[in-house]
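User: What would this chain look like folded?
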Amino acid sequence: MLDAESRRKTVRITLDDRYTLRFEVEGRVFRSVELTNISMGGLGLKVDHREAVRMQVGTLLKGMVFEHPLMPKVKVDGEVRHLMGQNLHNADGKVIVGVQFHNPSPGVMILIQEYIEGRLELES
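Assistant: Here's the prediction, encoded as structure tokens.
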């Protein structure tokens, strides 16, 4: 059986806590949400458990905007694909939210691809 990394179709770049995201869920704006990673398919977020209750698989994150000067200045929607750490015993912790880009424009994808390729060049 293949592990998750072997099944991954695109390269994932790990980000530190300086990389954040702004988006809207059901009329509520979330700001400075920590990004954990990004790929051509989507991104990972670290969300406070109390806030994650608004996010279930299938939830649409509208108007996602990267809040870091080195990241592309784009707006794209995303759909929650998985959550890790969301349980009763984690009431004060963080939940990892996996988000898939939802109908991104080709222009947005080009900018994200350029960002990822630039990071890969710096790391090699």
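The first strand starts at residue 13 and ends at 14. If you want, I can go into more detail on any region.
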